Write the structure tokens for this entry.
Amino acid sequence: MTSKVFINIIRFLILVFLQVFILENINLRGYINPYLYVYFILLLPFETPGWLLLISSFVLGFSIDTFLGTMGIHTASSVLMAFSRPLVIKAIPSRKDFEPGMKPSISDLGFLWFFSYSLILILIHHLALFYIEVFRFTDFFNTFLRVVISSFFTLLLVIIAQYLFFKASGKN
């Protein structure tokens, strides 16, 4: 149990560092903004209590907001994503039953399940993030295009990270 907590703390710190110092500098005309820090929320174990999921997401979003000087948009988006996570997990059918110790990963539940799970949660996060950022509907379609393109690149990074850091055996 302690090793899982330690791994999640290290994952948290690495993802915040990557987001703040590397990924935040990737910006192609305002349309491509990958937000890999959401990977932390995606990878939290199924057994994570709801209160801990929400608090962890709040701290994650608040950390990003603090470093980037944004005023709560990452916090709000992260908490919404965490709040939606149990509903998304229940809504997506799985070929396997959820067992204790299983992780939401490609190695445990398959590519299609992980892809659907990640896509839905990343879209929820990015919709909230970008629409709170502009805070108006006059640029609805332009903002929606930013959501779709950024979600695609974030999902691509999440899938690549899954294949880089998770072995077929399901360890890690």
Summary: Residues 140-165 form the longest helix (26 residues). The radius of gyration is 16 Å. The mean pLDDT is 90. Residues 61 and 76 are 7 Å apart (CA to CA).
